[in-house]
Amino acid sequence: MNATMFSALAPILILSLTAIVLMIQASIKRDQSLAWVITAVGFVLTLCGAYYARDFTQSVTILLQVDHWSLFFTSLIMIASLVTLVLSRDTFSPEGERKEEYYLLLVLSVLGAVVLIQSSHMVSLLLGMELMGVALYAMIAFPERGHLPLEGAIKYLVLSACASAMLLYGFALIYAATGELSYAGIGAKGALAYLENPMLIMAGSAMVLAGIGFKLSVAPFHMWTPDVYQGAPTPVTGFLATVSKGAVFIALSRFYIDGALYQYSGLNTALVVLAIASMLVGNWLALRQENIKRLLAYSSIAHFGYLLVVLIALTYVDAGLVSQSITFYLTAYMVTTLAAFTVVSTVAGEDTAKQDVSAFEGLFWHRPLEASALTVAMLSLAGIPLTAGFMAKFFVITLGIQSGLWGLLAALVVGSAVAIYYYLRVIFAMSKSTESTGESANRLEKLLALVLLASILVLGSWPQPFIAYAGGL
Amino acid sequence: MVMINLIVILLVGGLLAILSERISDTMPRKVAMGVVLVDLLYLLVCLSGMPDITQLQAPVASDSSSWLMHFKAGWIPAFGISIELALDGISLLMVLLTLVLGAIAISASWTDIVVRKGFFEANLLWSLAGVLGVFMSLDLMLFFLFWEVMLIPMYFMIAIWGHENRGYAAMKFFIFTQASGLLMLVSILALVAVNHGATGTWTFSYFDLLNTEMAEQTAHWIMLGFFIAFVVKLPGFPFHTWLPDAHTQAPTAGSVILAGILLKTGAYGLIRFAVPFFPEAALNFSYPAMWLGAAGVVYGAVLAFGQTDFKRLIAYSSVSHMGFVLLGIYAWNELALQGAVMQMVAHGFSTAALFMIAGSLQERLHTRDMREMSGLWQQMPRMGAVAMFFVVASLGLPGLGNFVAEFLVLLGLFQVNVWITVIAATGLITGAAYSLLLMQRSFQGEVNKKWADYGLADFGPREMLTMGVMMIALILLGIYPQPVLDAAQPVLQSLLELTATPALASAEAMQ
Known about the structure:
The complex is a heterodimer of chains A (473) and B (511).
Chain A: H1 3-8, H2 10-28, H3 32-52, E1 58-60, E2 64-66, H4 68-92, H5 100-118, H6 122-140, H7 148-178, H8 183-196, H9 198-216, H10 225-231, H11 234-258, H12 265-286, H13 292-312, H14 319-347, H15 363-366, H16 368-382, H17 388-403, H18 406-431, H19 443-461, H20 464-471
Antiparallel strand pairs in A: 1-2
Helix pairs in contact in A: 2-3, 2-5, 3-4, 3-5, 4-5, 4-11, 4-14, 5-6, 5-11, 6-7, 6-11, 7-8, 7-9, 7-10, 8-9, 8-11, 9-11, 10-11, 10-13, 11-13, 11-14, 12-13, 12-18, 13-14, 13-17, 13-18, 14-16, 14-17, 14-19, 14-20, 16-18, 16-19, 17-19
Chain B: H1 2-20, H2 27-48, E1 69-76, E2 81-87, H3 89-108, H4 117-136, H5 140-149, H6 151-161, H7 166-199, H8 206-209, H9 216-233, H10 242-249, H11 252-277, H12 279-284, H13 286-305, H14 310-331, H15 334-365, H16 376-379, H17 381-394, H18 401-416, H19 418-442, H20 449-452, H21 461-479, H22 482-500, H23 502-510
Antiparallel strand pairs in B: 1-2
Helix pairs in contact in B: 1-2, 1-4, 2-3, 2-4, 3-4, 3-11, 3-15, 3-22, 4-5, 4-6, 4-11, 5-7, 6-7, 7-9, 7-10, 9-11, 10-11, 10-14, 11-14, 11-15, 13-14, 13-19, 14-15, 14-18, 14-19, 15-17, 15-18, 15-21, 15-22, 17-19, 17-21, 18-19, 18-21
């Protein structure tokens, strides 16, 4: 380790420091507002750290790879975490005496996500994933009211543990075949090992895929998603949907690209099956959902199905275009999902009855800003032009066409057509006339909704600067 | 810049309409009307400086400088997407139709919108802006964007201000058009990818893509994607099922815009994109397309005959009339194409007027059921007379615009296939049957006691003025259609040349 390596690790170091400061603070004076401020400052400093680290890109030991791509995503999840933080403030203020711990858990979970994004080795992959996951279990179960959070947390815990076990066994098999644990090493020796013993590599990578598939909640590993989405406090759901899933997807794509897994056609077929299943299952099951968080859960299953198309296209097109597409898609997805959860959190809060689509009726007329933000978010998820979601879909379809993946495209078209129905249901409910008047959100949350709304529209209507930037990462 | 301004005026006008609701309750409609008229006036003023449209030499489709107006600015250079707008004879006709019908639509719902008036007028203006964009954009991505975006305000118009079953209708409308739009997006991207593979550059420009060379099979599939997307919007049989619901449930202004303008975007897309991009594939496909057109003519007419709902009957008659447009386009000779363009304009006026009458009836009687109407002429003689005029226009009475259109289509079609012509021609007879039935059931016959002392108000000056404009337009189109034909002729000519014999053209170029 030398000095530049520490500079490259700035985001991780700052986050760790924030966690330590939070622990010390909790032992001296328990105060929620103070913990909130410390966390916010920590996150902002981490953002600065990620900016600072851009000049020191390198691989830090064998475990972590700090490059512009991972730093971009580090910044992105820091922004998402800040949004979560803003939303958490009101959500957790009525908890009992121990609400400061939530912020500690949040920081630890983000730390795990950053490690995951920068991982270039199976050990750091597992480390990051577990750190993120373990903190998340507690965050999901954090509220002391009702059974739903507890149910969600247990489900997530048990299934995640299974997934981790699968992942580890997969690692073991790959290690047995290649004698390597770093992505690059697997990439270098994988092809030869495959010739000697194809079963080991295939079984190993299939198990890794299953383990990661659990975290990404692609069908058929999606069973936990709706319950956890519904049970978790809304800000945590937003965090899970954006930071957690985004980080895992980045880890998967790094593993896939650097480990040269795209060269195994069997694995690609498996991905095709997962993608098509996710698109159809996600969109189909979302149709009958009444609870908007469950609806968003199924919608996210479908979206990761779309995103998998990009990885599958890796076999046919160059990696630069693929990573550019992943960057654009994930950014669009995260911004849009955050906007949706911001509105759900400020409008419905933690009241399950208020989370029903029918409870959003008339929102246009008594809370126009929130309703507009949710409308734009829904249109973006549906992929209507002028929104970020459309440009994201544009990338996916372009890659699909260039790679000649017609079956996947057909599933995408069918899935998207079905999806329009449930996204529109939300918009339709909001446009109904009702007499009720809702309370107003606080200023910070309003500002947040406005900023996210604007980002979706800017990304969708004037994407050139961002496309160019993403291409240069 | 003129074209950008046309769109921006409408977009900003929408915002003004929302804001003006704070001044007074009746302000939004005045603002909206003012905005559309200013837009129209602006276009006419700008056109007066241009060479007379009929004197233009035939624009070469692949040469942008021969177009009436052309504008290009970069947008997403990474994918060769630009903001490219252009105007030729056909676009101009459609743009004028859009603006005139836009004003008529605002007039049509002068009094029947009671809630959230500002937002209503804004949606109306925004959907007009989207339609203008569709008629003018020549960058496929921009075209697609307008194509999709014009639907969102339309969706809101149906979903918020529609009639009893509006939720279902709005949803069906949106899903049909979006799903077909998605198919078009895939087709557009496939076409661009093929062109990228051949030339190595990303471009979405109409002019660059026009001469994309591709395998017959590829062309066939991509063409089919475009075809379905446009035919859903047209709507052609068997993709028409969204239309009766959407038209029936939409507020009057919504129906006027849907039937008068939005349907024409499908026909416009076929003429401008679907056939010229894939001349061989499209013309190989012309027989299935023409049979679909003929089926639409007959099927729409038969279903119209069976309706009891005033608006639903008109909606099905649209299916029948738009069948002629599909026939005219795929017959692909000058007469038939002229007829198709003519039909787009004439049908726009006649149907808009009928929907406006339906809206007026609904406003007065609170029902659209023709079984409850009878002898309304006695109580509302002006409305009755006006309705009579538009009913006979719609059934194709010689001397009015629709006759010229349908006659030209049949004439052109006859040169291509006699049997399809024979079948399509029966549409004129069935058309007469359902049109007269409409008239007879609602306006003639015994006076229904129910309405006897209902105090039904006849058409006032505003309505008569609006109707008068459309009457004059239809009469002019009927007795002196030459200006429309002249405006469309050079464009159609060049499209025909472009698609006629690509092999011959390239051989000439070789020499």
